[in-house]
């Protein structure tokens, strides 16, 4: 294979403007130019793309780059074209004429890098024309997509090796930013690259600050966070297109330059939004995970995960888009176990192996969020890298949790691994330790073991934490051959023989943290609002409620009145933005309250603090409109949920949002089939005499023997629709 004589460093300076290589780049490039198979594991922002771009320019022929995303291809081709390099892509966005032009230029040797999607490679016409071209090598970007054990598995990626063999005997460079030892093994095996030179860079991004917060007032927290980082570039990741649209709209109405990005947008809009972000016409992009792969924007200062990601690999890759210039990079994740439960439901229709793999990845994600151990230590351990200290630069290091003496518990956990013959994963070990019988415990007679039930004084969450920390501190290790299985290490065997005092960190209890936050907010609210105005608003509410023969909370609840007494809304729009109000309530009850506030503001010469209100968007989502229309047509609620691919609890939550924003809904046609009139009246009477519409109190008062939570939530909607809207 002929190589141009000029030195690689000259080429690096001439084309890309760099005078030095970073890390392993030079060794990787020399390896691929020597015609050897090459496997590169390098974190996001460390310069992976240069590892195939430079040899493509230094070698004769065209390099094929297999890439999973159109956005990624466009971004890299645009950049290379700007450097004066003839790079092109072949994908569905091109017209027939444009495709033919790219093929002609490739065959004539003008194109140095040709980006192709794996799906395009399977087409016979693509293979035929590639056989006519002089191909220098094949680069497989985002190679983790090959592995069914990874976070972004794509079946078409597993066909790549056979396709390359069809084109010719070509050297391969496979690159990924996220590969656990198990995934690495799977990639090499599938690509028949067992003999490949492996270049593995450290996964440690020292400039990134990792933080996890519980999901609580998340929208308010996000807006405050972005306003505190005014003018800085950031990405917010959401799991659904609907949530992307909602958050982008919310940011816009709060005067933040934000744009949405997801696969459902028209391709021109999507590209325009991406370009606006790259060109600094927008500060924030709100996106599904499709955004950012290969996007070379060095100055992204924060990455926020509004929803919990599906895996640590995905999380690491997405956070890696922050601070690629080595400067400030903040990674904030909002976590709720409800997100994990929802994601598990999404996997329920997948094949068994894929479903089990997905569940294990989600368990790892939940463990990362819950754990109070140094975040960096956890991330690096996950990717098979040892990090023997606390980083001092993550939330768990800056705000350390309490530690406890864990010697006895660690010995028990290690013995459970040994006594079950090192053939099981965390769930089974926890069942054995807590004395919980299941089909596996029974079939393997593990209820006969010495350790069975020895840890029943503690719950499953406690033992999960002990086993996780045993892994992190290398008393246990993962079995690479058997996904999810844990083995004891030499260090673990020594600990069983000679135990010694050891301290482990107590996990986060996010439910408790949310409760404390709510109490703190309540205290602040009680101290922060205008007490005189609050009393006047309460008196007005009491008088109006008495005139209407309604409980006062039906008009407005106390938190809404306190917010009115803090922000002094004087227009219908301002009042509609108060939490728990909405335009429906403004129209029904708002006029006297607005008159009272306006008079009070004028008499006391108050400057209203409109800037402390997080403005909410009027939700015009298609789902809401659809739900309202179907309820008007008296469509069965289960059918509405099924037609939109959501669960009944999710549908009821959607209906509650509609109701709380002031829209009247008539669910009698459905409720009458579930509850008789006497029981309906009992619930209506309860809400009429109750001091609030709190569901937990309703369940406690009315009991679960006679009513399900679903019954009571539907009746609350009926009650509020009738009296509050």
TrEMBL record:
NCBIfam families: recQ (TIGR01389), recQ_fam (TIGR00614). Gene3D superfamilies: ATP-dependent DNA helicase RecQ, HRDC domain, P-loop containing nucleotide triphosphate hydrolases, Winged helix-like DNA-binding domain superfamily/Winged helix DNA-binding domain. Residues 218-366 form the Helicase C-terminal domain. This is DNA helicase RecQ. CDD domains: DEXHc_RecQ, SF2_C_RecQ. Its cofactor is Zn(2+); Mg(2+). It catalyses: Couples ATP hydrolysis with the unwinding of duplex DNA by translocating in the 3'-5' direction.
